[in-house]
Specification:
The complex is a heterodimer of chains A (about 450) and B (about 180). Chain A is mainly alpha-helical and about 450 residues long. Chain A is built from 16 helices and no strands. Chain A has one domain. A 4-stranded antiparallel β-sheet of chain B has the order 2-3-1-4, with helices on one face. At the A-B interface, α1, α6, α7, α8 and α16 of A face β2, α2, α3 and α4 of B.
Amino acid sequence: MYDTRIRGELVEGGVTYSDITRDILAPIEQPAPAWWYAAMSVSLCAIAFGGWAGYMTISRGIGTWGLNNTQAWGWDIINFIWWIGIGHAGTAFSIFLLILRQKWRTSINRAAEAMTVAAVMCAGIFPLIHMGRPWMAFYVIPYPNTRGPLWVNFNSPLFWDVIAISTYLTASATFWYVGMIPDFATVRDKTNSKVKKLIYGILSFGWVGSAKGWLRFEALSMILGGLTAPLVISVHSIVSMDFATSVIPGWHTTIFPPYFVVGAIFSGFGMVLTLMIIIRNIYNYHHYVTDGHIDAIARILVFISLIMGSAYATEIFIASYSGSEYEYFTFYNNRITGDHMIGFWGMILCNAVIPQLFWFKAVRRNTALVFIISLFVNLGMWFERFTIIVTSLSKDYMPSNWTDYSPTLVEIGLYVGTLGIFTTCILLFFKNIPMIAISEVKGILKHTSIKNAKN
Amino acid sequence: MLKTDTNENIVGVFDTEEALINAIKNIKKSSFKIKNVFTPYPIHEVFHELGLTTRLPWLAFFYAVGGTILVFAFLYWTSVIDYPISIGGKPDLSPSFIIVMFVMTILFGIVLSLVTFFTVQRLYPGKVPVIIHEDIVDDKYVIVIEKSNAMTERDVVAINKLFVSNMAIEIGLKNDVEAI
């Protein structure tokens, strides 16, 4: 077995195995603090607002949104892509780093995967309700039907979206759950509460930690990881093809699949960073999520930020180099300048410029600053989707079709509602699930923190 | 497959990973057979010493290949045989089927691997496990040796001595322990 020395200690503070168990189970065993109830109340209010918006949308129809013939997509698809992008982090994080055998993932993967599952659930709501008649949603499933039997169009990116996202949700949720089984067993055996013993006993599937069980568990993790890794690439490539296979200026480009995948991982890592800084500070997990972890994510972000910057520059260059006047108009008259230039410059500033601060070690070591920059990354990625969708649709080929777009209260309500669902899921995760993969951290303790291990 | 025997087992509890691996090596040299080992996290040396292997990756590969074939057959049947639709004169058998096949290959691989894992490992919600030691999920390591009917009192003493000489911190008896 080789040792990881490059990254220094991955678990600090000389903790023992039983310290790890105790520290990570503590939030589950203790009653929830007051801030937790406060945050939960705010989240539930947001969900109520979203529920009202959903009721309006479904009972009255898409007319309650600010969309029209020209502007056929708006906040619905912006938020869908924003959420699915955030939902790429868990998998990108834990799976790529699992396959690359990066041991520093172990402190972070559980939270990243939890975030993924919550974000993909939020994302799934938007395509469902933007169909207009969500009770007809089952029409997208290819089954022998009485309509012909007419099959769905297997060559349509919109159908690929359906299977890609449902597969992605299945894959990331099961990967997350399987990883939690040994930790649920830990809760089952360590808790004093009879109710918790029963619930976590059911959740742990009767896990006992036998040698063969661990061997198969590790094999299964690698299988799920190895199979889901290409899925991370394909999901957002497919989402980008919703745009790239159309003829709308600004969308009809071959750069879209890699550009979307990188953007998704960028926003996901931004959200991981936001979440890990919160967890680390609130639950005092500085030994597990060390400055080194934050530093490593910040380094990845600065690298991805450069790729994003290159992608923006490439798009702008090709818009003029291609000689297509429509492309030129979209980029130079409707993005860099024009009605929606705030979205464009917000995107450039938040995604390509501000993360460059991570080149400086002083910035990477300043947790408050890292936290703020991680929020800017998520804001910037929202601007990116806004820019792509609204600028291209609102002013396309025929000036007589041009229109403006602003969201209605119902659309804002839906977005706020999904934010509420996301934070509710995260708060439930804080309270009920071991936030750091106990058995995985124990597994790396000896190899990465030699002087810390017992003996 | 896992076997569960109702007879008694002698359980040796160890405090460190090194002591556990050392004990496994020494027990292998003796005449007794290790029935199972329990650890709080996966230890590759234990797999190596016990000679454990798994065919799960191979199964996953065949599941995925099977999924690809099945999905291609389905797409071919629906779009070429059952209800071909000419879209802009493009061929019915379209290269863009690759995308659906790619995604569904992954889905088949994942779902069937999961089913296999839970089936062979006999894990299911509501299972009442035989917990070998309350700290096995924390920081203790356990070796189990079956106390078969053929064993004499002297064998049992010898097993106890073997555990003690290998730094076991606790020795006990446990029924119904699953074998490897």
